[in-house]
Amino acid sequence: MTTSRSVVVERPGVHRLVTGPVPEPGPGEVRVRVAAAGICMSDRELYDGHRDPAYVRYPVVPGHEWSGTVEAVGAGVDGGLVGRRTVAEGFRACGSCTRCRCGETNLCEGGYAETGFTEPGAFADRLVVPARLLHLLPDDADLKAAALLEPAAVVAAAVRAGRPTPGDRIAVVGAGTLGLLAVQLLAASSPGELAVVDPRAARGEQALGLGAGAAYTPKEAAGLEGRFDLVVETAGAPSTAAASCRLARRGGRVVLTGMFTPGAEGIDPVHLSVSQLEVRSVFGASSAAWSEAVRAFSLGLLAPAALVTHEFPLDAFDRAIALVGSGSSEVGKVLIVP
Questions:
Q1: What is the chain's alpha carbon radius of gyration, rounded to the nearest angstrom?
Q2: What CATH number is given for 3-147+303-336 in this structure?
Q3: d(CA 228, CA 218)
Q4: 148 phi and psi, to 5 degrees?
Q5: pTM recorded for the entire structure
């Protein structure tokens, strides 16, 4: 094939399907044939124009959650990669700044660059990425499920930050994609209790099927304040950061993974100090977190396929993006399958 298609968002609310030459990988790069790409709320924010201007560059081909097969390599890249199933880190970390040298590649000081936001993403037939960002998958990997390894890497970063130990009482706030992946990873830590908090009954039921022991609405969870050793917040709703801190016991741990918007309810500093809470936040995922997510997926500890509810071809991007953020409990992970 001598041409490749991609969805280009020219500016907020305006996109088109473009056909052009197949991109060629440069030195140190690989070209991947995209198998599937997930749409998340960050993509919806990009499309609607609500993403912080520092974290997007129009026009852009979105798509930062993806999987595929290496099709070609550039100069200096091992030709043995051709034909391998893979995912790749989204952050184009420099690898040489202080934060990168400390292993915090998601906090690179070399300037923000990320596939699907400032660099061409995976809502396309083919994608070119630096070979150093690849995480190879087993030869029999389910590539549609593997498209969810980017949010799984974020969850792995949250779990690393939360340091669960066997017997911990754990709550996951939010049962969207991040929350349901978190339930699966945390279930593998042998918790004494694993609860999920979400206003949607259907999502609570799904969490129970993925390893949670109990599901509560936010109103019901208000009666459980001060109970949990570890609370992993995944919703990014206006009230969930503060509510998560109230759920933690004195001396407990809270990890915030949701992407909050201005105006979210603040955390009470008095409660924070007298309860001696440890509060961490997560922005994206480091290389180490990516490795852990891919390893968990390869071992069968993560089953992301259960979260996929809709698939669309590239030329139906408008219908796909409309579903994301619709609020329907019937909409889980939406995939673009070129």
A1: 20
A2: 3.90.180.10
A3: 15
A4: -95, 10
A5: 0.95
Beta bridge partners of 171: 195, 231
Those residues with Cβ within 8 angstroms of residue 278's Cβ, 6 or more apart along the chain or in another chain = 251, 252, 253, 254
Protein fold of 154-281: Rossmann fold (3.40.50)
pLDDT at position 1: 66
Q: Do domains 3-147+303-336 and 154-281 have the same CATH topology?
A: no
pLDDT, one tens digit per residue, over 171-182 is: 999 999 999 999
Characterize the bridge pairing of strands 85-88 and 134-136: antiparallel
* DSSP per-residue codes, 150-202: HHHHHHHHHHHHH---TT-EEEEE--SHHHHHHHHHHHTT--SEEEEE-S-HH
Q: In 3D, which of 175, 89, 102 has the Cα closest to residue 130?
A: 89
- How do residues 224-283 score in pLDDT, each as one tens digit? 999 999 999 999 999 999 999 999 999 999 999 998 888 899 999 999 999 999 999 999
Provide the pairing of β-strand 278-281 with 308-312: unpaired
- Going by the DSSP 8-state scheme, the letter that residue 307 receives in this structure is G
Q: Which regions of the chain are under pLDDT 50?
A: none
- The residue ranges of every structural domain in the chain are 3-147+303-336, 154-281
